[in-house]
Amino acid sequence: MTEVAAPTDVVVVGAGPVGLMLAGELARAGVGVVVLERRDVPSTASRASTLHARTMEIFDSRGLLPRFGSPPAEPRGHFGGIPMDLTLPSSHPGQWKVPQTSTESVLQQWALALGADIRRGVEVVELVQEPGQARVRTVGRAGHAEIPASYVVACDGEDSTVRHLLRADFPGQDAVRELLRADVAGIEVRDRRFERLETGLAIAARRADGVTRVMVHSFAARVRDRDDEPTFEEISRAWKQVTGEDISAGTPLWTNGFGDAARQLTRYRHGRVLFAGDAAHRQMPIGGQALNLGLQDAFNLGWKLAAVIRGDHGPELLDSYHDERHPVGAAVLSNIRAQALLLLGGPEVEPLRAVLAEMIGHEEVRARLAGLISGLDIRYATGGGKDPLLGARLPPSTLRVAQDSVTTAALLRRGGGLLLNLGTGCGAVTELTGWRDHVTAVSARAEPGSVLDVPAEAVLVRPDGHVAWTSGTEFSLTEALTRWFGPPTDRL
């Protein structure tokens, strides 16, 4: 017998970092959200451990950073194993080392505190779209159930059940190379950072608790068809083949392998079903880009989905999610494929690595690659002007508001959109009538030397921190407000 549960606004499938980020964003906006996760308990395997500058800015704009404590920061990253400085203007430049287990824990506690309903040990087995709603059928410890929802968002990883149920077009390339990795206790090997040896690549990093993460790739190896993770025996054998060292006496805490497959959904929206994170795009997790890309998908989608469900905006707003995030995903997949070739290719790629290493020494090239990796270069197409702020994220700055110094991140924590009046005599605030429930007007002055010390007298910022309009654009503030926040209301 199938129990029909109470309807909810949104069902999120998957309680990894992406699903939990989206759940928190929706609950924060007053939207009912149920998260379904087939695992009974959170994973203890810390897969991705790198948070980039843009993700740290996002967490800051939600007041989440104190919950992460004081994670180590590292200005240097790499492109395909070639060292490079990732530093760009940001409140949190470089990259920050946070175990995925910690990221999931912070986001879960945040989402739960805001009212999200997280149900574990529940597997989705069927999804039906009907006029006005979708129905998710599940199986779990309590038996079969059905949950009606206005929308469903698949955040269930690269082997997404929802994607398979919908038979969504997922073109791309299968993996031909694989990197094996394990967290191992009780071994003594020296730290290595992308050490290319005669027969393969070796990486090792010893943690403060004495556990060493090893990663290895044999140039001669090809991806194996496997249903489970690689065994420690397989990893230790590959490690010995490449390095000559024997780690087989160690105690494996976790093993994993990932290939260089590259696939992306043709569409991120299928009616009342949307996709985010690895469910929407599959890529090799080089430099933590996969995790950060997925978190930023959720951040882009959350406020838009909430606005549609609350009735502030029509469902066409959800099409902008695909229009904005699909090109970003394609760009990340492209740079990851290039990095995979540089990282896992054999001796034949050495000339290319030498040329790129020289080019990275030029600041313009370095900054371009750092922008790609960090997510700080993202600029959504809005049309109507060449103002460099338009479509980009609002640069983190300190503003003078009345007698106080306030960061732009703190202003974004208020929720909704933000209209910054930065000049004198700017009449933009008078156009805000009808949107005051969704946009807060703030009169401010940029501190001397601030990146916001620009000619624009007013700036409209979306809830995700991206600039939707400036006083220098070719379209009006009213047009921008209507586009992103829906038609005006009669409420003042």
TrEMBL record:
Q: Which domain of life is it from?
A: Bacteria
Q: Name one GO molecular function term.
A: monooxygenase activity
Q: Which residues form the FAD-binding domain?
A: 8-334
Gene3D superfamilies xref list: 3.30.70.2450, 3.40.30.120, FAD/NAD(P)-binding domain
Cofactor dependence: FAD
Record keywords: FAD, Flavoprotein, Monooxygenase, Oxidoreductase
* Name of protein: FAD-dependent monooxygenase
Query: Which organism is this protein's natural source?
Result: Streptomyces marokkonensis
